[in-house]
Amino acid sequence: MNSIPSMEKQFTKKLVEIIEANFNNEQFGVSELASQMGMSRATLHRKVKATTGKTISQFINEVRLNASKQLLTNRSGTVSEVAYLVGFGSSTYFIKCFRDHFGYSPGEVLKENFHPVETPKETVYLKKKKMPRYLKIGIPLVLVFLVFLYITFLNKDASTFDAPSPSTSNQAALNLYLQGMNLMDVYSGSQNPEHFMEAKKKYEEAIRLDSTFGDACSQLANIYLSFIPFSEQTNKGYDYIDSGRIYIEKAEHFGVGDTDYLLKTKSIYYQQILDYEEALRILELIWKDKKKDYIYHYERGNHGFYMRDYRATIEHLITYLHLKPKRTMPDYDRLLKLTMIFSRAGFQNEAMEFAYRQFELINDSMKYRNWYPRIVYECGNIEETISFYEKAYNNNEFGTTVFNKLLEMYMLTGEADKGLKLLPEYLEYNKKLSSGMLPNHLLGYYHWLNNEEVLAKEHFRNEIRRWEYFCEVNNSQESLTNFITIAACYSMLNNKKGIIEGLKKLEQKTSIPFLVILKLKKSPLFDNFRNDEDFIKIKSKIDDKYYREQRTIQEFLEEYPVEITFNRDGVIQILPN
What we know:
There is one protein chain. By secondary structure, the chain is mainly alpha-helical. It has three domains: 6-109, Arc Repressor Mutant, subunit A, CATH 1.10.10; 171-290, Serine Threonine Protein Phosphatase 5, Tetratricopeptide repeat (Alpha Horseshoe); 373-573, Serine Threonine Protein Phosphatase 5, Tetratricopeptide repeat (Alpha Horseshoe). Helix content is 70%, strand content 0%. The chain has 29 helices and no strands. Helix 16 (310-323) crosses helix 17 and helix 24 packs antiparallel against helix 25 (478-492). The longest helix has 27 residues, at 533-559. The protein starts with 5 loop residues before the first helix and ends with a helix.
């Protein structure tokens, strides 16, 4: 402090005086301090950083903590009372900040004969006494035993310890932030989008109170990148990327308490813009000097999912489930991703198992019921798919999905006559929809069977335009199967260049869905090129890629088998009668 010039001393002294005068003001934070100093927030931020080496929020907290220590030393109140006196609304948060700053709890200061540990000014040499042999052996054994008890019986998630302090000194902003965190915890169990949208409002309100609240910006970035896109039914994920990026930049500029969380969010941003190499580099940077425990596999599995890498997703998320502490609830999102990946990879029993575990976690029978037809369809179980949708149709559960799935399954099984009988009813149903008739390659196929060539070609061309645009701007799981739809439409239009280019794009993907293998093998949409040499060659490459990955997944499951606990009869009971 002696090295600070007198003007800077005066500046620091004024800061401290203003902060101390506002201990009882819960709304006091960075904006209020800047206003009373007669500066803009940006100018104050730069000057405080240059003078003290700290952010404004850190400096305010330090002043509060130093004052609290003095009050505790003078026995001016209990821990809770002192916390309130210096401007902390939460005594729990105060205790954590105090321990982080001083290295001991505020409660210890109140104890009789308390003396903080200080480095001695001179070394006093004592006569060395020989330690008895039984102590040399016994003390390490006792320590090992205590560590064992701690790990075995407490078994707590490592992430619950030493949680970084949020980067704000504004108590009202902090309270809103903590409310947002609680709502995100609720969402993890409920999967109700209203909860994370309510959390989003809390973070936005917190930022309105403290515009330099970096951790709130970090949380908002993650909501824009990881939650809102997947709650939309119209594949608008890319619409939110820029919002996520802007909040990441704000969090980096103002600083955050939880650096790891910001880095994870930044990794997700790079996943979304398809820069997987940079996303993985950031993720590995977080874990560079840490033990790669179940949380690491949790995050690596998530990265594999975004890469559409079935093998990596399954390996890391199954390892996460094996390593996680028994008392830690499985994360719903990981169960969802395992269900999707096993389904797309063609592992029906494993996919149904994780759909059932989702049901056990959130007790939503409708979601569980909806998984069954999707899984049997993606795993190529044509018989069960037809059975399900015929039951739905016979129960008058009409809908675009019911008609489309029946038309497609009848096409794959060579029962197109059944599809032709269904076609007039489907067309009539579509007329009643406010959205009108969307381009549909299946309708194109059945119009082609009815010798309605002009109408059929119109469907195929419009379907190509629709899905080529979708695949260009969207890297969702669905986009993989849409490449096969594009290729099928080009095939029906006798466009060899289009079909080969479409299949080459698909072959370059990290993983191939089983549904692609099934359609290439059975769909009559590809009959125009069945004997074409180039088609045979690219189809063979796609088949080899799929079966090669399937073998590696199977080998992994032999080492880490998935216990099948779901009751198949229970699934059937909730299907249409």
